[in-house]
Design goal:
Layout: E1 3-6, H1 12-16, E2 21-24, E3 27-33, H2 43-60, E4 68-75, H3 81-92, E5 98-103, E6 114-121, H4 125-132
Parallel strand pairs: 4-5
Antiparallel strand pairs: 1-2, 2-3, 3-6, 4-6
Helix pairs in contact: 2-3
GO molecular function, one term: hydrolase activity
Protein name: Rid family hydrolase
Keywords: Hydrolase, Plasmid
Length: about 140
C-alpha cells in the first residue's frame, strides 16, 4: 500500500511540514490534535471535538476508532484528567487502547486545553477475512 496522508485543514501543514495523519501499510499515526473553536470552553468539550476529528481522520484513511491501539493525552491542567478520561472512555470503552495522560506547560495554540495523538493498527487482509468468516477466534 505504501504511504498515504490526511492533510491538516489549516495552512500550518505546509508551513511547518506536517500532516494530520500518515498511514503506512496497516498503521495510522495521528498527529497531536487540538480543538480551538471559541465555543469549546472546557477540556471535556475540546476532547469530544478532538475525538470526532480523530474518528473522521481514521475513516479517511480506511480505519475507525476500533483500530486504535494507543492514545496520548496532553492536558494544560492535570485536574481535567477525569473529565477528559470520561470522554475517552465513551469513545474507547470496548477498545481500551494503551493510554498516557500527562500535563504540559503550554500548547502552540493559546486556547487549547487538550491535545491528543493516536496510533491505529488496521487488521491485515488475512485477519479481516478470518474475522468476517468466523476463523481464528
Amino acid at each position: 500500500m505504501g504511504r498515504r496522508r490526511a492533510d491538516v485543514k489549516s495552512a500550518w501543514g505546509k508551513t511547518i511540514g506536517y500532516s494530520r495523519a500518515i498511514r503506512t501499510d496497516d498503521t495510522i499515526y495521528i498527529s497531536g490534535t487540538t480543538a480551538t473553536e471559541p465555543t469549546l470552553k472546557t477540556a471535556e468539550e475540546q476532547a469530544a471535538s478532538i475525538f470526532a476529528t480523530i474518528g473522521t481522520t481514521l475513516q479517511e484513511l480506511g480505519g475507525d476508532t476500533r483500530h486504535v491501539v494507543e492514545t496520548k493525552i496532553y492536558l494544560k491542567n492535570i485536574d481535567d484528567w477525569k473529565a477528559v478520561g470520561r470522554v475517552h472512555g465513551d469513545v474507547f470503552r470496548d477498545v481500551r487502547p494503551a493510554t498516557t495522560i500527562l500535563q504540559v506547560d503550554a500548547f502552540v495554540s493559546g486556547e487549547a486545553l487538550v491535545e491528543i495523538s493516536a496510533i491505529a493498527k488496521l487488521p491485515t487482509r488475512v485477519e479481516a477475512f478470518n474475522s468476517r468468516h468466523g476463523r481464528g477466534r
